[in-house]
Amino acid sequence: MRTATKLSVFFCLIGSWGVCAAQTPDVSGTWVEDSHAKKWVIDQKDSAIHIQEFDGNRVEADFSCALNGKQCDVKEDGHAEKIMVYFNGAKLVEIRERGSNTVKQRLSVSPDGKTLTVETVPLSASQKAETLSFRRQQT
Q1: What gap in Å lies between CA 49 and CA 64, rounded to an integer?
Q2: Cα 13 to chain centroid, rounded
Q3: 76 pLDDT higher than 90
Q4: How much is the pTM?
Q5: Strand 130-136 to strand 115-122: parallel, antiparallel, or no bridges (unpaired)?
């Protein structure tokens, strides 16, 4: 009986892993906001990600981080910031902490792969929630 239980648990774990792996989208590409004011360049490779955020020609953020949820220290707009990046199902989650301000961003790619939606949720009172929509720029 114990062997049957262990095998059941094993196959459930393998099945769950397959579902999780299948839900991890590739967010790589150049993404331009609908208003064309902002552009994000994302390079996702294996267990790491490199993100560049532009407002016009000005670089707002340029950082690389592991996709395992471990904190990485970066500079954004000249300020020290702590960032964690990980996948929660089909959404890429970024938690950014600068001083007493903490923000969670959830990035999701549309089923056709042409739209990136970025939901920003403040975890501190000093910022407002917003949702931005980006289109994948053809290369």
Answers
A1: 6
A2: 24
A3: no
A4: 0.79
A5: antiparallel
Residues comprising the chain, all counted? 139
All structural domains of the chain with their residue ranges: 26-136
Model pLDDT for residues 54-64, shown as the tens digit of each residue: 999 999 899 99
Is 26-136 a domain of CATH 2.40.128.20?
yes
* Token digits of residue 39: 């552009």
pLDDT at 1: 43
Tell me the residue ranges of DSSP E strands in the chain. Answer: 29-33, 38-45, 48-55, 58-66, 72-76, 79-88, 91-98, 101-109, 115-122, 130-136
Question: Of 19, 29, 23, nearest to 52 (Cα)?
Answer: 29
Angle, alpha carbons 67-104-69 (nearest 5°): 20
pLDDT digits (tens, 9 = 90+) for 79-111: 899 999 999 999 999 999 988 899 999 999 999
Q: Which residue, among 110, 92, 24, 94, has the nearest Cα to 61 in the 3D structure? A: 94
| pLDDT value of position 7 | 33
